[in-house]
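Figure 6 in text form: structure in, sequence out.
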């Protein structure tokens, strides 16, 4: 019964795939990406208040973009026709 979906139908795609037991995990490191983008190291951030404020500003912009992207994805799931109410 583990191969049943929400409608009670058997998923053929899942039943045809062999169960390998391997699971791939993609690790996201947004702080490392942000530091690499600006060409800074964590030591620069710790030792310089100017760099710390600069990275804080970029971090806030990054978080706003991530949250807005998540909101748009949820809106797309709930309102697939794209109608504005």
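Output sequence:
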């Amino acid at each position: 019964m583990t191969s049943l979906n929400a409608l009670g139908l058997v998923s053929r795609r899942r039943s045809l795939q062999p169960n390998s037991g391997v699971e791939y995990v993609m690790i996201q490191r947004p702080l490392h990406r942000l530091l690499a983008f600006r060409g800074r190291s964590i030591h620069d951030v710790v030792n310089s208040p100017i760099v710390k404020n600069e990275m804080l500003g970029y971090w806030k912009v990054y978080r706003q973009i991530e949250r807005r992207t998540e909101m748009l994805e949820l809106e797309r799931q709930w309102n697939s026709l794209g109608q504005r109410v």
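Caption detail: The radius of gyration is 21 Å.
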